[in-house]
Every structure is written in C-alpha cells, then in structure tokens.
Amino acid sequence: MTSTNDASPQPVLRADRVGVRFGGVRALDDVSLSLRPGEICGLIGPNGAGKTTLFDVLSGIRRPDEGRVRLEGTDVTRRSPVWRARHGMRRTFQRQQLFGQLTVADNLVVAQEWHGGGGGLAADLLGAPARRTYERERRARAAEVLRACGLDGLGDVYAAALPVGRARMVELARAVADPPRVLLLDEPAAGTTAEESRQLASVVGRLSEQEGCAVLLVEHDVAFVMEVSTRIVVLDLGRVLAEGTPAEIHADHRVREAYLGTAAG
Ligand SMILES: Nc1ncnc2c1ncn2[C@@H]1O[C@H](COP(=O)(O)OP(=O)(O)OP(=O)(O)O)[C@@H](O)[C@H]1O
C-alpha cells in the first residue's frame, strides 16, 4: 500500500516505493510518503514498525534497497546526509546529539558554520573583519532563535548541564538556526514535561505556518502527535497501514488494533 498524495503544491520531500531489508527482515516494504511545504506529518507505529529506518532513508544515512527519495523534485537517493542538509533538510535524533562542552548559543552558531565565508582557521586566529561580521550575524540569529523557542537566558549555559526537556528544545532550536525547508524530528517530546511539550508543539506549529517548513515527526506520545500534526501516517511491520487527519486516524479500527490500543490506552 502507498500513501502518496498528489495534490499541489509540489512535495518538498517524497519517498517512492521505498524498501529496506535487514537479512530476512523487511524493515520497509513499498513505502511511499510525501510532504508539502507547511505541513506537519506525524509518523507513528508500534516498536519495530520501521519509523527510524524510514528517517534514515529520508535523511541519507541509509540507502534503500528499493525505491527513490526526492527533495524538491531532485532525486537524492544516492546523495549524502550532508548534501541533503545543505539543500534544506534537517534531522534530530532519538538520542540527543548536542555538543555538551559548548554553550547553548555556540551550539546554534556552529549549526550555521557550514555556510563558511570566514576565511578558515587563519581568519579565526587573526580575527579577520569578514570573520567577525559573520560571527556577529550568526550570534544574532542564534539569539533570535533562542528567544523564539523560549530559551532566553540559557545562551551561556553549557549544553551538557541542561535538563532533558530543555535540551530537546535546544536541539529543535539548533535544527532551525539555519532555516530548513524540511525537518525530520525523531521523538522530540521524549522526556519533556507537559509544559515543555506544549512549547515544542507551538514552536513546530509556528515554523510550519510562518516559514512554510515541512515537518515529519516520529513520536510515541500520541497526544502530542494528534495535537501538532495536520496529517498522520501509520506504519506497521514496515508498511503504511493508514494515512489521514488526526481524527481519521484516531477513529481507524485497524490503527487502534495495531497501535493506539496499546499506545493511547
Ligand atoms: N541495523 C539493523 N539490523 C538489523 N535489523 C534492524 C536494524 N535496524 C532495524 N532493524 C529491524 O528493522 C525493523 C524496523 O526497525 P526500526 O528501528 O526502523 O523501527 P521503529 O519503528 O523505529 O521502532 P522503535 O519505535 O522501537 O524505534 C525492526 O524489525 C528492527 O528490528
């Protein structure tokens, strides 16, 4: 079964008939999915359904055995994660990936460094004027994003010292420091308090509404997914089991049997 939706506007990200095998296990089997600008798509399913594998394929960490991935219409199936990041794709991971020895603000500055332009190490050491200008602009952008994420006042704190919920928000802030076209969020609400997950939902919502970013979200917190998503795709045993609005998914008896019955009670 496929879940391709062909209405305009053009998808930012599209997976066509993706298949991945691990020995005898079919982790993904004929999975299609497309994401449009400004939409927030929740990706849910029981443990082992293939969600992480699909994220790995979309972000370029794993090459599929079958099928293709397109980013803004370009076939990126054989492109590296770095190439995809440079063309507007960002991903966060289930396990946090912040630079613990850097401050929160520096984590966000580093996320913008790939643009280069500062003249390399020599320019850093000599404090070249161009380097100082880039640095100032990137710090200003970091401060703006931290404010938008409700992280004011945490810029000088070392990332390693943050409680889990704040670290999750910093990961999101870092992923959007350089505005993405498509954002893959892997369990962003894990370990957050109710208030923190509300804040996350509101930041993700603004990102899609105001900046037209397409978001794909894997999350076991079903209430969070239902609240934040405009559309939900359900994976089960490596296949798309259902796709629809949060209300449609909630009412779908196959989904309740496969997943919601245990996840949502
Ligand atoms: N590196 C691997 N080697 C072998 N099998 C793997 C590997 N990675 C995943 N699998 C298998 O592929 C299937 C899909 O796993 P995947 O981690 O993508 O599921 P998931 O939906 O992300 O699960 P979870 O919710 O537990 O994170 C599972 O059967 C898993 O055991």
Notes on the protein architecture:
InterPro entries: AAA+_ATPase, ABC_AA/LPS_Transport, ABC_transporter-like_ATP-bd, BCA_ABC_TP_C, P-loop_NTPase. Residues 13-262 form the ABC transporter domain. GO terms for molecular function: ATP binding. Pfam families: ABC_tran (PF00005), BCA_ABC_TP_C (PF12399). This protein is of the alpha/beta class and 265 residues long. Helix content is 39%, strand content 22%. The protein is built from 10 helices and 10 strands. The protein has helices at 51-59, 81-86, 104-110, 120-126, 129-148, 164-176, 194-211, 222-228, 246-251, 253-263; strands at 13-22, 25-35, 40-44, 66-71, 74-75, 89-91, 182-186, 214-218, 231-236, 239-244. It has a 6-stranded mixed sheet with strand order 6-7-8-3-9-10, with helices on both faces. Strand 4 and strand 5 (74-75) form a beta hairpin. Helix 3 runs parallel beside helix 6. It is globular and about 60 Å long. The two termini are 27 Å apart. The model is unreliable at 1-6 (pLDDT under 50). Bound molecules: adenosine-5'-triphosphate. Adenosine-5'-triphosphate binds next to strand 2 and helix 1.
